[in-house]
Amino acid sequence: MMKPTLTTPLELAPLLAFGAHPDDVEFGCGGVIVRETSAGRAAHLCVCSRGEAATHGTPAERTAEAEKAAQLLGATLEFVELDGDAHLEIRAAHAIKLASVIRRLRPDILLAPSLEENQHPDHFRLGRLVRDAARLARYGGVAELRGSAAHAISQLFFYALTPESEPADVSPVLIDVSSPKIMEAWTAAMEAHASQTRARNYVELQLTRARLLGLRAGVGHAIALYPNDALVLDSLAQLSRGARLF
Amino acid sequence: MMKPTLTTPLELAPLLAFGAHPDDVEFGCGGVIVRETSAGRAAHLCVCSRGEAATHGTPAERTAEAEKAAQLLGATLEFVELDGDAHLEIRAAHAIKLASVIRRLRPDILLAPSLEENQHPDHFRLGRLVRDAARLARYGGVAELRGSAAHAISQLFFYALTPESEPADVSPVLIDVSSPKIMEAWTAAMEAHASQTRARNYVELQLTRARLLGLRAGVGHAIALYPNDALVLDSLAQLSRGARLF
Amino acid sequence: MMKPTLTTPLELAPLLAFGAHPDDVEFGCGGVIVRETSAGRAAHLCVCSRGEAATHGTPAERTAEAEKAAQLLGATLEFVELDGDAHLEIRAAHAIKLASVIRRLRPDILLAPSLEENQHPDHFRLGRLVRDAARLARYGGVAELRGSAAHAISQLFFYALTPESEPADVSPVLIDVSSPKIMEAWTAAMEAHASQTRARNYVELQLTRARLLGLRAGVGHAIALYPNDALVLDSLAQLSRGARLF
Amino acid sequence: MMKPTLTTPLELAPLLAFGAHPDDVEFGCGGVIVRETSAGRAAHLCVCSRGEAATHGTPAERTAEAEKAAQLLGATLEFVELDGDAHLEIRAAHAIKLASVIRRLRPDILLAPSLEENQHPDHFRLGRLVRDAARLARYGGVAELRGSAAHAISQLFFYALTPESEPADVSPVLIDVSSPKIMEAWTAAMEAHASQTRARNYVELQLTRARLLGLRAGVGHAIALYPNDALVLDSLAQLSRGARLF
Amino acid sequence: MMKPTLTTPLELAPLLAFGAHPDDVEFGCGGVIVRETSAGRAAHLCVCSRGEAATHGTPAERTAEAEKAAQLLGATLEFVELDGDAHLEIRAAHAIKLASVIRRLRPDILLAPSLEENQHPDHFRLGRLVRDAARLARYGGVAELRGSAAHAISQLFFYALTPESEPADVSPVLIDVSSPKIMEAWTAAMEAHASQTRARNYVELQLTRARLLGLRAGVGHAIALYPNDALVLDSLAQLSRGARLF
Amino acid sequence: MMKPTLTTPLELAPLLAFGAHPDDVEFGCGGVIVRETSAGRAAHLCVCSRGEAATHGTPAERTAEAEKAAQLLGATLEFVELDGDAHLEIRAAHAIKLASVIRRLRPDILLAPSLEENQHPDHFRLGRLVRDAARLARYGGVAELRGSAAHAISQLFFYALTPESEPADVSPVLIDVSSPKIMEAWTAAMEAHASQTRARNYVELQLTRARLLGLRAGVGHAIALYPNDALVLDSLAQLSRGARLF
Known about the structure:
The structure is a homohexamer.
Chain A: E1 15-19, H1 24-37, E2 43-47, H2 59-73, E3 76-79, H3 92-105, E4 109-113, H4 121-136, E5 155-159, E6 173-176, H5 180-191, H6 194-197, H7 202-217, E7 222-227, E8 231-233
Parallel strand pairs in A: 1-2, 1-4, 2-3, 4-5
Antiparallel strand pairs in A: 5-7, 6-7
Helix pairs in contact in A: 1-2, 1-5, 2-5, 3-4
């Protein structure tokens, strides 16, 4: 099967979101994906296991759920094999494999799980691998990557799947996802992972977090992203909103 | 003398920058002011002493320097009396006085010196007073402010006058000030404070800092601002630049 | 009028909670107060202004609301005059005044607003004054306090009125307030401050925060407190619950 | 040989303490183990090497020392083979192996070395593996663990073997170990590691640390533990002691 | 009475240590003072109250104790009146008064209590005032200081009176005070404050802290100082000792 | 080929600097190396790859550049094979290999890249391996190291190759490298890596950083080092310079 690329000519450069398990992107930042795809940006999800170590759901079920959810987010989807669910390790070969995905898709923006360690060990390890991959993708001499042109992304944002995994030392950027259309699509994409949501109130967790950020920002719901590198802006024109309602 | 207001109908809401001494805004974030005024945004500088405790320069000289510098930045200027240079204290009355300035000018964006304490004591105290003033300006029942309508700003950014005063726990936003026109106006505004620049290489300090940030961001020069509240954005569209050249 | 004391013989030593405004204790940690009073512990609220600078509500209305709310919490209430709403300053005389309240009531546990500065300036200043007062209350030679016996509290906990004022450098202790009776009394006490809740969704803010903590802890709702000093325990017997549901 | 289990019916759920070397638990938190076992709680030590890379002591000697020390602490003991002393690596297989120990023993409370990196590399790596193992133990689908029922612990506490390895970003809980009986048993258990204590004053290091914490807490000696997850409590009843003597 | 100066021509520039109470310097860093005076450096103690709010000791007794202790440290002593014990406030006038002391004595090195707030409120306030005073002492235009020549110190070190007041965000420098002569003089100077040491084991607290640092550094005893500004050195020649025994 | 040793009897104990790529030591702390070698201290560079993954320069070219640069710094050089450029992993075997280098050369001071993760992944991984290696080098029982005598270094300093990799939680020590002779040699050593400097302005980045530190310290140029362990000093004699010009 030919691997997907994102070559459709678009005004907005594509976005590439990594998840360690089939539902990570949806729960962690699904609303942001919808926000971007509904504005015409191409988004691609790269999922690094079939969730085979979870208490509920078979790999086949979870694959189907991920495909349905990606569609609801307006995104394309691929699976990349690393060490398997609950077995992910930090290996240079993994970072290089992810770098090859980056080179193929040539996104501007990457999304990856945050680096805080008190969460599922696959999450923060994937976050580290993606961060390293973003660097390796731009080095010209990595032997395994020689077939593809070097590519420098513009920004890597981390998303947090739980309150415990919110980075303590990076200021978040809150993305307003209040529009009913976005909220509906995001909620549907989370609920598409029915094998998981049956067991625990993951959806309520994420909606409560988003509502709390929304209350702070004076909007309906918001999702926090954590930039890996300092934001660079041309002026203050885009920055005149702050979360200071209370 | 009638106190200035910023009522000119503009598309961009006005910006209000506070400095403890006549040269603080210029040295700390002058390039950002130029960037905004050259885009048509009204900017007003509120200076809270005449710099009368400095080793060099009389209050009269420093007032004249500040007026010249403000003009070079494209900004208007006023002086507010608090406790005097090197004598600033944290008093509720000062915060309320600054809140009345905010209510009169009704800016979207505030700029103030950072809160880190290892710098001139007037700097971080003014930063705190401005932060508190931004809150008090929106409370309806403060007796001293009753004549004016409550006003909620959108965002408060801190600027750092020295490397030591850069906040350690807030992620900076880098504003690209590389355009030659901006750099010229900023440099001229700093050099307008001739009584100060004769004694120490303040200008070199700021240009070295801005060049270092520029190198990191892959541009000529940049200035770091530190948001007081989480940034709220409608989408990722404005965020696809990160400082990751090296 | 005779000032209140807490001399009823009780097995549990009394609790003393300080608020800068008539509704601070209720919004910040009202559920904890209910939890303690419903277990038979005496609780006393010490409110340091009449909320006269707020946009809504007269001092008389707010006093009445506070009295009703305290009753709903099962607590007694007194007002202490410091500098007035929105005018609080850090003064040794204030800390000594609060120390005299501590000496009169002789509590084991103190509750006070957190010290994070990005909130209403009265909040963090009161938190600092209470922390200092707890120290001064035990020093035998403070002239203004000579009429009363020195008293050492056992622990000071801070509560956070907003997400922004949650301490970043102290690990929270989560108090389970899930029982319907507690939640009802807490909610009623918050809603007793009708002049404030009409204007903004403060109640939703607090219930959303408590639900989010409850989700993390695997209970209904929880409130976070931040100890000023390291917890000292006799054994691990009381510590075998952690917030690790997700 | 049949692997040990902790099935004795007890009111207090069992405690499981991990050490990278035969003396780690004794030096890092031995007094806490004594405190718990003398209250009737079952405690089990899981040691992950024979200390074969140390300057002093053969594996056989160190095994014997560990067995004697465990007995003095009132705990049972087993050795688990990972990579060997000074060779420990972060591998998913190790975390899964430790998860199988957790599933077999089904403890409420785990103890593990802290995560700070400036200490023996085996220490912080084992701390990470235990933290990850505690998560994996509750996931139903991990293939290697299928024979055993999933188990969720209640709390994981880290202990610090040296001042350098005390976590900087977690508030400690101080356990009072002042009782002479506890101090005697703890000291004896440390001295049972005679091959190590001959070479360096490890015992003095730990007793000095415990005395310093005791002075702060107003007791004889105390040991600091660092919870991995926020403490959840039913009320303030257990929290009315704080370390605030000076 | 003529105020003391430190004009004796010495190879080592004088050291000036500030304390809020008569015993602060002795308990916080007395060993360092002895170390320096025994090497021929002039040291001067500036004490900012008579300890009149303490539970034990009259101002007259405490003055006599301080004089005896200073002599044991080999230091001169003066008292400066600010607001009185337990009443210290942050006022510009205080910082300027302390700046005038700095200008008179012209030290290279300043010592002051640390800035951490969870300690006696006079301690951290004095630390802030000294830090600000060190800045004001070098500004030429401060009206109150016009009679004296501006003076720039070289380094300000903070000392911590308790473990709670050790700065969390500054790396300490450990001064080896192991020589028996130093330890004897330091201990004697602490015990000279007999009114205080009768009531609590302050001496044991400090000796335990110093021994713990000594154990870490592989020496007998050490005292931690916390530099306010980055250390500047000509080479690595002086830096080849680190606290890495365990 | 016989491996190099540093047995020349010298007054100053030798220094050993590790780099992940052929130019890391030169860019990160070359000026410090020159400072030390020009004072007669032996310095040895241990480079852990040939830079074969970089966009520019062949391994042969880069080896030659490194040899020339080491000569300009007055240092000797060796290459150690680990996993290869862009492929470095944290393995116990690597730390042991580096420990064997430490045992052979028996340095007092180590230099290694900082541990901050947002940089080239080889950098922080090498920093961790060197830190662990410094510990393992002093343990007597590590089987692979049995042929060589245990060795305890005195201090490990980290250097930062970029602003992003400067440690946030360690106070830096600034080494004054202002002498023209040092600056010339350092600059020449950086420019010796011509394959790299052609592509990006690495030299300007480092000189700008050093000038900014120099401005703060009141000297020409300075380089920041970050000690791994608390500095231990005999007195304050070497510490009377602080970076407080502004």
